[in-house]
Design the sequence.
């Protein structure tokens, strides 16, 4: 299997005033294309920081990071934004949908940045909503949906532009068991049937079971290396 | 354009707040539409008199400066002038200074030049034959319950009688009517014999306030006006001949610099508006930082986010502003018929253009700081609520 994400000697230092906090220490990690990886670890261990770096939301202080063969650690802000729009889908704990827009319009958002026509945007968003089994909720606003439904809309938004990589930061952290189960099955299906590479941060060992394997992060260091690459 | 629904949704995220902000913008631009229309009317005081069949000649220096009687014959001799009347402002007060109405001493042929002020022939004859005779507009007569035969006392404010007394008494001999309902406000004046006024006044005898010329062809009005003003060129009583509406504006300009007043009021209004809408926009963006962070996460560029917020604030001001000027465009024509030329017949294109320019400028000014804030937000911090 080929490698999608290649991380070498990656460090992240936050500067707060005069104080420097190194949050990630010299991380080496390869993530295979088609993997479904669960990232666990205590609160404050740097999971979100690592996920944000892989998703191109932030840039490392040191080391190299390539995704799909492209170095993203040295991209400027504008280039990184364009790269994100083409290659990564994001799912967050609190769904982060725009409250004023319908489910359909929320899912269409990433497509506004493409050259697709209005009709094509509409069609693609409808397909994505169908995939998450919410075609009948297309015209609903986020406040008219349950947490689980909102998270599935967020997943539809994450996959609508067909990225290779999904990064999910505690996607079930705010959901009841049943909704969490639905969301996890959905992610599993996207991984299995659609070949999406998924990196999921979670606190919940039950959630991690849906992944193909699990990595643990502690105080900014990986305590177990991936067994298979 | 495909982003418009995003801007729109953001704008109406807080409906009540947006509604009140738009209402204030509307009020400010309604006021702007009205005041700038007044200013426009005054700025055009030197407009052409072409098309007028009646023009007025007054002192170029000031409405309060009088003109020599000797001009009468020379104006009458100007080709194209059919008839010349003249008048003096009396400024008398009826019972109480609150009861303001125009009262003027006029030449015998005044109602012939003002043929739209209709007086029954026998009343007109009585006016000529009664030294102290006066004619008032029907609306004014109704207001004070005056009937023909009444004695009307006026207290002089400028011109005492020869014996020093300010008490003048006139005999009401006629009532004029204006046929055109749009001109009914012209029925609010009182006219009396210039000859009586001139003989009885203590000073200024022989001096004329202004001349009124009836021209043979409105198309020649410009040429005639120039010829009349040429008579007194380089004299100590240079004249300005203009249309009636321009005359009214010159009259009001004696008391106030309209342009300065309008600019002063509007500066205060727009300053307040900028603080108010600026506050709305700052609040709106502060609340939406996580949403803007999501847009950036999805790949919206920094300039893109900047443009979205600026578009939002410009749209906010445009919605209120265009509605405000549109409302002014309804009000101005309705008021204009009663405004004796102090308002144009409608909101002029230059007022629209200036207004839209101001809306864009205000929109950008109030949007720029929130937009920069949105643009510079760090995604990872905003998502973590830092
Ligand atoms: N922008 C930042 N500035 C300063 N410190 C930060 C910043 N982001 C994260 N941190 C710190 O880095 C550590 C790891 O944070 P995070 O990656 O969010 O942990 P986790 O997701 O594992 O709970 C924490 O101690 C956090 O306070
Ligand atoms: Mg975290």
Sequence:
């Amino acid at each position: 299997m080929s490698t999608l994400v290649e991380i070498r000697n990656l460090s992240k230092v936050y500067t707060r005033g005069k104080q420097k906090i190194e949050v990630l220490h010299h991380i080496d990690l390869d993530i295979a294309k088609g993997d479904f990886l669960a990232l666990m670890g205590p609160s404050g261990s740097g999971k979100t920081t690592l996920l944000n770096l892989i998703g191109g939301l932030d840039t490392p202080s040191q080391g190299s990071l390539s995704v799909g063969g492209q170095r993203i650690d040295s991209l400027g802000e504008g280039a990184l934004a364009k790269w994100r729009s083409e290659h990564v889908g994001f799912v967050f704990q609190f769904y982060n949908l725009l409250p004023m827009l319908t489910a359909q319009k929320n899912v269409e958002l990433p497509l506004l940045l493409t050259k697709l026509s209005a009709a094509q945007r509409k069609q693609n968003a409808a397909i994505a909503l169908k995939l998450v089994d919410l075609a009948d909720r297309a015209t609903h606003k986020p406040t008219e949906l349950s947490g689980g439904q909102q998270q599935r809309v967020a997943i539809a938004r994450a996959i609508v532009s067909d990225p290779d990589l999904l990064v999910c930061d505690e996607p079930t952290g705010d959901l009841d068991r049943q909704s969490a189960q639905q969301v996890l099955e959905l992610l599993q299906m996207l991984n299995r049937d659609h070949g999406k590479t998924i990196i999921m941060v979670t606190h919940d060992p039950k959630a991690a079971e849906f992944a193909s394997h699990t990595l643990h992060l502690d105080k900014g260091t990986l305590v177990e290396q991936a067994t298979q690459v | 354009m495909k982003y418009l629904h995003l801007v729109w949704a953001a704008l109406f995220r807080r409906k009540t707040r947006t509604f009140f902000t738009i209402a204030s913008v509307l009020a400010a631009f309604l006021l702007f539409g009205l005041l700038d229309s007044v200013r426009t009317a005054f700025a055009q005081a030197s407009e052409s008199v072409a098309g007028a069949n009646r023009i007025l000649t007054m002192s170029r220096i000031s409405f309060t400066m009088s003109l020599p009687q000797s001009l009468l014959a020379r104006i009458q001799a100007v080709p194209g002038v059919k008839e010349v009347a003249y008048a003096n402002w009396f400024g008398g007060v009826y019972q109480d200074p609150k009861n303001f109405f125009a009262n003027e001493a006029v030449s015998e042929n005044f109602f012939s030049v003002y043929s739209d002020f209709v007086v029954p022939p026998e009343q007109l004859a009585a006016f000529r034959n009664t030294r102290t005779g006066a004619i008032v507009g029907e609306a004014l007569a109704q207001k004070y319950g005056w009937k023909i035969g009444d004695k009307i006392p006026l207290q002089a404010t400028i011109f005492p009688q020869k014996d020093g007394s300010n008490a003048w008494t006139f005999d009401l001999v006629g009532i004029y009517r204006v046929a055109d309902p749009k001109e009914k406000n012209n029925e609010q004046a009182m006219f009396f014999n210039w000859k009586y006024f001139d003989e009885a006044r203590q000073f200024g005898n022989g001096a004329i306030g202004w001349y009124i010329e009836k021209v043979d062809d409105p198309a020649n009005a410009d040429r005639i006006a120039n010829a009349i003003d040429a008579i007194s060129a380089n004299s100590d009583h240079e004249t300005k001949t203009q249309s009636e509406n321009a005359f009214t504006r010159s009259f009001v300009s004696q008391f106030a610099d309209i342009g300065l007043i309008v600019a002063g009021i509007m500066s205060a209004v727009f300053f307040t508006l900028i603080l108010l809408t600026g506050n709305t926009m700052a609040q709106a963006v502060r609340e939406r930082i996580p949403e803007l962070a999501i847009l950036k996460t999805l790949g919206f560029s920094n300039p893109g986010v900047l443009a979205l917020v600026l578009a939002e604030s410009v749209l906010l001001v445009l919605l209120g502003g265009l509605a405000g000027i549109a409302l002014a465009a309804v009000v101005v024509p309705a008021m204009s018929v009663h405004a004796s030329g102090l308002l144009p017949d409608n909101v002029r294109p230059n007022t629209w253009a200036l207004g839209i320019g101001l809306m864009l400028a205000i929109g950008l000014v109030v949007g720029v700081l929130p937009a920069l804030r949105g643009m510079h937000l760090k995604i990872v911090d905003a998502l973590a609520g830092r």
Remarks:
- The beta strands of chain B are 54-59, 81-89, 102-106, 117-118, 133-137, 151-155, 167-178, 189-193, 210-215, 239-243.
- The CA atoms of residues 67 and 208 of chain B lie 5 Å apart.
- The mean pLDDT of chain B is 90.
